Amino acid sequence: MTQAPDSTILLGSTLGPYRLEELLGRTETGDIYRATGREDGTPWLLKLVHAELCAMPGFRAALRQQAMFLSALAHPHIAHASQIDEAGDICFIALPWQPDGTLRQLLGRRGGLGDDLPLAIDLAAQIAEGLAFAHGQGFVHGSLSPEDMLLARRDDGGYTLTISDFGLAWLLLDYSVESGPWADSLIYALTPERCRGLEADAQGDQYALGAILYELVTGCAPYSARTLDDAVVGHVYSQPVPPRALVPAMPAELEAIILRCLAKSPADRFADTGDLARALRGVKGLGAGSRGSGVGSRES
């Protein structure tokens, strides 16, 4: 696969009824934009699937079929596409705009949430709960990253989180991440199993959530990588710096949960993401009046 062009050249362009306004991030499967409706200015979140994927034989039809299947995933922490369409050689997915953006944007504003562990735990638990429901219905995400997590502020200062891009990774049957351009989000899409050539599965989703939670609480990814080879070495052979070495105030119970998710062997992780969600909701030692509130400190 050839290197993708600079996505910012598309800013201001129109796709069907949408105008691209701002590049929000890049994932393994495509670029994410804030867009507006050309007719009424309504804000939207658009995922532009990488052109190389759209060109794969049968990909576009499979994308529409997958969207139909995923419509059965009715859960408060799973986002649903409002439209899947094509414009020339580009296929895109439109989702309702979430005014507080993505988890990646929150991390960009706040860095890690080591000073607000109840919020970090609440966000991770919401992801785990959405995953548990999807896994129970036979669906795997396969490409989790902070860019996929959409946020809406609650009155209590926390956020309601929804997971986007469910099932898109399943369409990459003939797509090899090794041949694609490097993107920071690949540090989450990779797992020890995937680095060894195995398919995405529910245990891989749990590992990816562990990597996201690691960054939520520490402000950095569990492994630093500038190339795919760096990332593979980290996921397969290296051990992350213990989270409490970076955030000493973190309860040992939370550190144990994170490291269990990041275990190299799936057998050493939680049995399923439902168990993980319950473990997160049960973390103690976060300070009087803060445990279980799901309330984050308000941003200025």
Key attributes of the depicted protein:
disordered N terminus, two-stranded antiparallel sheet, alpha+beta, Phosphorylase Kinase, domain 1, 300 residues, disordered C terminus, Transferase(Phosphotransferase), domain 1
Q: What does the overall shape look like?
A: globular
Q: How much of the residues is beta strand, in percent?
A: 15-25%
- How is the largest sheet built, in terms of strand order? 1-2-3-4-6-5
Low-pLDDT stretches are 1-6, 173-183, 288-298
Described by strand count, sense and barrel closure, the largest sheet is: 6 strands, antiparallel
The CATH fourth-level homologous superfamily of the largest domain: Transferase(Phosphotransferase) domain 1
The string of secondary-structure elements, in order, is EEEEHHEEHHEEHHHHHHH
Instruction: Using the coordinates shown, work out and report the CATH topology of the largest domain.
Output: Transferase(Phosphotransferase), domain 1
The radius of gyration computed from the alpha-carbon positions, rounded to a whole number of angstroms, is 19 Å
The total number of structural domains is 2
Total helical segments: 11
Main CATH class of the largest domain: Mainly Alpha
Average pLDDT across residues? 82
SS-based class:
alpha+beta
* CATH architecture label of the largest domain: Orthogonal Bundle
The tally of strands reads 8
